[in-house]
Protein 1
Amino acid sequence: MPAILDDPSSAPIKRWPSRAETSLPAGIKPRQVTLRDGQTNATISPFTSQEQIPPSLLAFLCRQFNQEIESGDTYPMVDPFTPEAFGAYWVQSFAAIMLLDAVDLQADEADRLDWSKVCLGSYYIKPNYPGRSSHVCNAGFLVTEAARNRGVGRLLGESYVDWAPQLGYCYSVFNLVYETNVASCKIWDQLGFKQIGRVKGCGKLKSYPGQLIDAIVYGRELVSDAQNS
């Protein structure tokens, strides 16, 4: 569910006013989770720069994302990313990556790991609009091929609605969730997102030749735990 304004080839949308601090809020730190099977443990880790991520892991995520683009059913892009372009696009502002618990990204051998076995998914957070509306955010999600149907998408979504307000965002908009993406729609419905709009016939999807598929616009207010207390 990328931002409509988010042309991968355009300059990134920046927060306004810009922030002087570069460190993450204290509440945003590696998050331990358990998958749907009740046994598999994983960690969702936050990143603010692609330099913090092993190059081989970024390359793996790029390949996974390109497969999603090639499938032609969830993202509107048609052209694949180079690893360099993907890193700049995905970790433009903030990104999170879910890995199996045993993985230590600080270890010397981290860049030689088989990511297809240990990387479960990722998402980014960035402003959806420029300037005076840059406190409204958007996110894009990716569940890796080997991690499907294990509850990874829901866990990533839960961390998103927790972390986004801590980053200073007040509202989340997903501009483009094709109504045929049932798994994604189910997650956002369950996490309290509202269907605030519909774009008629905006998707020419591979699995539906000759049809134009509607997209749902999802929105949700973002409130941090501190604001709730």
Protein 2
Amino acid sequence: MSNNVKLQVLLRAVDQASRPFKSIRTASKSLSGDIRETQKSLRELNGHASRIEGFRKTSAQLAVTGHALEKARQEAEALATQFK
């Protein structure tokens, strides 16, 4: 075999051997991008969850304060009635 033919055979073999690696690299880049997008979405969801939790705590505290205010009003009315 001539050197030229040997070189062509060798290059063809290298090309065939490296083809799967190229597709793996392409898939890896795509997966990396998908992972980044997923991480971004998770950060956003965690932020929303934190705000929801804060809202729930605030709502619970507001309910307690509302009950205390109503009790104070009733006591004030009772005292006002006693002074009349």
Protein 3
Amino acid sequence: MFPFGREYDGLLVHKLSKMAGQASPRIVVASAVRELAKYVQRQMPKASVENVVDYNAETFPSAIQSDATLAKRLQDAEVLLGDGKTIITCIRAGATPKLKWAHSTWAGVEGIMEAFNFQKPHDDFILTRPGHGFGDLMSEYVIGQIIARERDFEGIRLKQQKREWDKSYDYFRPLFTLSIGILGYGAIGKEVAKKCKAMGMKVWAVNRYQNTTPSPDVDEFRGMDALGEVLRNCDYVCSILPHTPATQDLLSGDVLKQCQEKKSVLINIGRGSVIRDESLIKAVREGWIGGAILDVFNEEPLPADSELWSLPNIVITPHVSGPSLPDQVAKTFVDNLKLYNSGKPMNNVVDWNKGY
């Protein structure tokens, strides 16, 4: 295992400081995000940026072996901006021997973690992931879904199709009367809390350990050991948890039975592995929860024969709450690139011990 915490931070600063003052590193972009290299180059005109997205995730591994030109382009890369799959492929194939830093375009890095069994591939390798860019998008998704549900926009649309003027839709729960429990108070969770608080909601935030630093966006902080209290007190429970051994099946079994008094609605924009499908289905059928808004699943795409598709009070979206938009991905990368070039600690460095 590798050191983390203060010792790790010191090691990281030491390594980065040795890089400071050197010529701008050679950056290779290997991503399916459209025109990502152009956005990076636009924000850093003097940077050496090379695009290798001529290959998709399926053909990229074989191309590394068969295309000598591609192999050469990767061989000299010090910095790799790529999707999770291309980062895994490059490292496994030994295609990037000079690699010092890889930045993933994906918010979740569990695929990379599992590919290397939660062990750093080599000493000098630093892995970072996006931060606030996804927070803006995913907080919009959360707020949009809550408003749509509380005001029943779908029902109003159906009335419109029938040419019915139904004033009963005057009655709904305003957001300022509602509470939300946010499971996972990282970069994305903080943005969700900020947006929800701006709408007047009471915000509970749950982290691995209870946060003792006050925030104007959070009314109640709790550690994961107080999860039950949050489930019992919140109208909405929003999971933004990553996939780690500690979070897998966290809400499975009868855990959601604690939501039955409030009839909480579960929003999952983190990872599907936080709850088994059968546990979620049972929670809905038993009336423990008022419904669920699901953007992530244990298996993606969600199989056509999954019972989740037809379950009442379930909203299913195809993992679109936080798409990788080129301008935002480029911005988070370039912000880190400036820190990297100056020898300063970067943002959103992945902790290989924690898995995120």
Protein 4
Amino acid sequence: MDQTQWRLYEAYRSPYDPCPPLEPKRFIVPPNQYIVFQPENLPQCTPMQALQLGTLWPALYSPYDHGDWRG
């Protein structure tokens, strides 16, 4: 997939807000949001690889990155 799955947004901050601005928030867009229908002959993983990735189709794989994530 060409699109990155991670997105950022900044919360609205009023010019009169006395609090310091919040850090930008990160969220993930699942890959199934980009595939509106299942095309024919979509490549499939091997059974062992599908068990490791959690999906039969590599196009729907979304890694879970839990590093320095706050959301």
